[in-house]
């Protein structure tokens, strides 16, 4: 499966472009996000409307569009993918890739990308066998471009031989194999907590907090994208379920702890939830408004992070906590790492005015045994990707 994998599909201008529509469907059926860039000549073979309808996204084709550069520039387009796939890779497109020519959005993206590139050549047999194309294919292969196909067979031009684009199923399988072999956390199991908890006062009322779950959900998605089997235990949020993640919904801290225990063993635990520190003694029936206002007697909730950190044989190898603090966050987070017994703490400022609670950005500091890293202000998705990459660097794939 390709759950949550982001694929940038560059569609070249050849008759095989029609097979791209099928490829987009196959990739999306497997759970991938597919964003498409079309060359000018690709649009002579299939319409952007068909491509957009199947990809569920707009098509990118204009290098000089002010709106596009504002919303999604060519650099960002080339980076916000896990793999770039070129299909059909025509003789002309292979030649431009080999020469590093950036004469339209598609080729500029291919030159700018920092991601691996897979290409499915498709052309007439003579063009494929021409020494120029052979040399271009060799140059690209030597640079790490993964070529899928071409197949032998009858061609649209009436000739027979190598040059037919690999079938969409075969390209999808090659993409799956790529991610299987390259997933930095493949074979690992991860547990992530997210969101607030709701602590019942009575059957209709509860105590909660302002956590949106955005950061925790993004972390679960990012870890799963790197290949870990991920369970997300979440309190009530408005966030959609991340792709490829097992989601367990709970309300209270005690339910969260039980769900976390059930998700063990795990190699990685990231406790991003804003767990309520206390709970009231919940009344069985709605508390009536007569007489003096009731006072709430609070009992301490279990500390999930501490429990996981002290779980003996069941302790995940890497336990990561969050420290949401107001003011002087790093000074407050240091002692917390020791007190909780976790390996890393991600400290962030949730003072009013920072916009962290519920917002899309976060400024965090990573505290490890080696020291403190101050990360720049990033989106929560970027914090998640960076943390997942750090986790992968620390653990790597399972043997
Ligand atoms: O003690 P404090 O709430 O500041 O610690 C924050 C960290 O501890 C977060 O990682 C949070 O998910 C975790 N935590 C927990 N269970 C609690 C309280 C906090 O897992 N009851």
Low-confidence runs of at least 5 consecutive residues? none
CATH architecture assignment of the largest domain: 3-Layer(aba) Sandwich
CATH classification class of the largest domain: Alpha Beta
Q: Output mean pLDDT.
A: 92
Number of separate domains? 2
Number of helices: 14
Major beta sheet summary: 8 strands, mixed
Strand tally? 22
Q: Rg from C-alpha positions?
A: 25 Å
Structural class: alpha/beta
Share of helix, binned: 25-40%
Report the CATH topology name of the largest domain: Rossmann fold
Strand order, sheet with most strands: 13-12-9-14-17-18-20-21
Give the helix/strand layout.
Blueprint: E1 6-11, H1 17-29, E2 33-38, H2 48-55, E3 59-60, H3 66-71, H4 74-79, E4 83-89, H5 91-99, H6 105-112, E5 117-121, H7 125-129, H8 131-142, E6 146-147, E7 151-154, E8 160-164, H9 168-182, E9 189-194, E10 199-200, E11 206-207, H10 214-225, E12 229-234, E13 246-249, H11 253-262, E14 268-271, E15 278-280, E16 298-300, H12 304-309, E17 318-325, H13 329-340, E18 344-349, E19 361-362, E20 364-368, E21 371-374, E22 378-379, H14 380-395
Parallel strand pairs: 1-2, 1-4, 2-3, 4-5, 5-6, 9-12, 9-14, 12-13, 14-17, 17-18
Antiparallel strand pairs: 7-8, 10-11, 15-16, 18-20, 19-22, 20-21
Helix pairs in contact: 1-2, 1-9, 5-8, 10-14
The site of cytidine-5'-monophosphate has 13 residues, from helix 12 and strand 17.
């Amino acid at each position: 499966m390709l759950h949550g994998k982001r694929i940038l599909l560059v569609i070249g201008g050849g008759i095989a472009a029609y097979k791209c529509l099928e490829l987009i469907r196959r990739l999306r059926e497997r759970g991938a996000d597919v964003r498409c860039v079309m060359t000018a000549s690709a649009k002579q073979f299939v319409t952007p409307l068909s491509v957009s309808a199947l990809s569920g996204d707009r098509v990118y084709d204009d290098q000089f569009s002010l709106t596009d550069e504002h919303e999604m520039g060519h650099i960002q387009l080339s980076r916000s993918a896990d793999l770039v796939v070129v299909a059909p890779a025509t003789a002309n497109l292979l030649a431009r890739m080999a020469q590093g020519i950036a004469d339209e959005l598609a080729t500029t993206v291919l030159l700018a990308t920092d991601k691996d590139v897979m290409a499915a050549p498709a052309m007439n047999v003579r063009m494929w066998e021409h020494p120029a194309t052979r040399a271009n294919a060799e140059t690209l292969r030597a640079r790490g471009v993964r070529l899928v196909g071409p197949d032998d067979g009858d061609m649209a031009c009436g000739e027979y031989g190598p040059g037919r684009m690999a079938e969409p199923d075969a390209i999808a399988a090659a993409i799956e194999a790529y991610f299987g072999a390259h997933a930095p956390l493949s074979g690992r199991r991860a547990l992530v907590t997210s969101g607030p908890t709701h602590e019942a006062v009575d059957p209709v009322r509860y105590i909660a907090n302002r956590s949106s779950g955005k950061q925790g959900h993004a972390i679960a998605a990012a870890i799963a994208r790197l290949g870990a089997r991920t369970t997300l235990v979440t309190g009530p949020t408005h966030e959609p379920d991340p792709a490829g993640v097992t989601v367990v919904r709970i309300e209270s801290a005690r339910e969260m702890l039980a769900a976390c225990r059930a998700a063990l063993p795990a190699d990685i635990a990231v406790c991003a939830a804003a767990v309520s520190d206390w709970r009231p003694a919940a009344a069985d029936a709605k508390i009536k408004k007569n007489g003096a206002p009731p006072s709430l007697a609070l009992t301490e909730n279990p500390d999930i992070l501490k429990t996981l950190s002290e779980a003996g044989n069941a302790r995940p190898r890497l336990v990561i906590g969050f420290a949401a603090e107001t003011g002087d966050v790093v000074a407050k987070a240091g002692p917390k790492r020791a007190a909780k017994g976790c390996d890393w703490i991600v400290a962030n400022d949730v003072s009013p005015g920072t916009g962290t609670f519920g917002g899309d950005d976060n400024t965090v500091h990573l505290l490890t045994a080696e020291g403190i890293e101050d990360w720049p202000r990033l989106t929560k998705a970027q914090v998640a990707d960076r943390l997942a990459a750090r986790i992968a660097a620390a653990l790597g794939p399972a043997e």
